C-alpha cells in the first residue's frame, strides 16, 4: 500500500514538472529589450513607436510622397536627416525601409514606385552617415494601406515609407 502511494506521488510530481515546463515556453523578447535606455529615448524622441516587429516610424503623416513621385520633399529630407543623425548618435545603424503607394496605377508600377520611395529614404539616411548595406529596402506597392484609398486624403496617407528599427 505504501509503495502504491509513493508511485502515485511520483507520477503526479512528474506530471506537474512537465506542465510547468509547458508554461515557461521561450518567447521572443520585446524590441525594447534589445536597446539601451538612451536608444529607446531617442527612438521615442524621433517619433518611433514600439510594435511586434520593432520600433516603427510610419511616415504617413510626416514623410509623404506626391502622386507618381519618389523624391523626398524638402520637409521630408529634413525629417530623414534628423532621424539619421539621431539614430547614429545613439549607435543605431540598421533600419528596414518599407515603401508603399496608394491604389491608383497598375500593381507592377506601384511595386516599382514603392521600392523607389524606400530607396529615396535610404539615400537620405546614407547622406547622414548610415551605410547602405545596413539598410533593408523593400517595396510593397499598394499592399498594407494605413487608411482607405477612397479619398484623395487617404491616398496621400498611403504614399509613404515606414522605417522599422529591430536591432541596433
Protein architecture, described:
This protein is globular. The chain has one domain: OmpA-like domain (60s Ribosomal Protein L30, Chain: A). Helices cover 45% and strands 14% of the residues. It has 168 residues and is of the alpha+beta class.
What characteristics describe this protein?
168 residues, 60s Ribosomal Protein L30, Chain: A, single chain, five-stranded mixed β-sheet, 5 strands
Q: Tell how many strands the DSSP assignment holds.
A: 5
Q: Give the name of the CATH superfamily.
A: OmpA-like domain
Give the CATH level 1 class. Answer: Alpha Beta
Gap from first CA to last CA:
62 Å
Helix and strand pattern: HHEEHEHEHE
Topology, element by element:
Elements: H1 2-23, H2 37-46, E1 49-51, E2 54-58, H3 74-89, E3 95-99, H4 107-127, E4 135-139, H5 152-158, E5 161-165
Parallel strand pairs: 3-4
Antiparallel strand pairs: 1-2, 2-5, 3-5
Short structural description:
A hairpin with a 2-residue loop joins strand 1 (49-51) and strand 2. Residues 12-20 and 24-28 have low confidence and may be disordered.
